[in-house]
Design brief:
Blueprint lengths: L2 H7 L6 H6 L5 E6 L4 E3 L7 E7 L2 E6 L5 E7 L4 E2 L13 E4 L3 E7 H10 L1 H27 L2 H12 L11 E3 L3 H8 L3 H13 L3 E2 L5 E4 L4 H5 L2
Antiparallel strand pairs: 1-8, 2-7, 3-6, 3-8, 4-5, 4-7, 9-11, 10-11
């Protein structure tokens, strides 16, 4: 076999973005400006959302009105997938942290796509397993690590350190109130640690719209 023929037989990487955009009826591309709700807690759960561009914050509000941030999603992530497991109403809200490009896929269209395309089904299952592992790691982090380590880990996760591909060392500025909700501590403690991280050269910010995270922040997480 010639090199050209071998190259022709080389398996083309599966592109979920292109596949989802072409699944036909039941899907729609939607643009959400910053701070706009993609869906709200209590809404009917009838679709899955695939983030094409931007960052999305997941929040939950308790019966007494206390809000908690439970996660931040980026391009390539899904949200609202609870509807596939029979969830009738949204258990939380998804808010655009930046201007976002999102693909809305009706529950029926998503189910049909999962049954029809095995590569997509495998990718989606792998995504759900990875998210479940992340939730378990979050729980262990909350139970056993200091608030300083938890904050460092969250900043590294937001910058995609440890994921495939090049980390996003510059991330959209996130409020200290939101970071405090994610860490499970007070805003004053987050402010103290952020100032410390900046003085040590682990992060950079100056009141602008972006926060730069350096790989040296890993020292906080790895240090006993």
């Amino acid at each position: 076999m010639t090199p050209a023929a071998a190259a022709g037989k080389k398996k083309i990487a599966f592109e979920p973005n292109a596949f989802l955009a072409a699944i036909g009826k039941g899907r729609k591309a939607v643009l959400f400006p910053k701070k706009r709700a993609i869906f709200a807690q209590g809404d009917v759960a009838d679709a899955v959302f695939y983030i094409q561009e931007g960052k999305v914050r997941l929040t939950v509000v308790s019966n007494i009105g206390r809000e908690a941030t439970v996660g931040v999603l980026s391009a390539g992530d899904f949200c609202g997938e609870g509807c596939l497991g029979g969830q009738p109403l949204r258990m939380g809200s998804a808010i655009a942290m930046t201007d976002c490009s999102v693909l809305r896929i009706d529950k029926k269209a998503m189910m049909e796509a999962l049954h029809r395309q095995h590569e997509f089904s495998d990718l989606f299952v792998a995504y759900l397993l990875a998210r479940n592992i992340r939730y378990e790691e979050d729980l262990v982090d909350q139970l056993f690590n200091s608030s300083e380590k938890r904050l460092a880990r969250i900043l590294l996760l937001l910058a995609h350190f440890g994921k495939e591909g090049k980390p996003e060392t510059v991330i959209p500025k996130i409020s200290q109130e939101t970071l405090a909700e994610m860490v499970g501590t007070t805003r004053s403690r987050v402010s103290f640690f952020m100032n410390r991280f900046r003085k040590l050269g682990f992060v950079e910010y100056s009141g602008g719209a972006e926060l730069q995270v350096h790989s040296s922040l890993l020292n906080v997480v790895l240090h006993d």
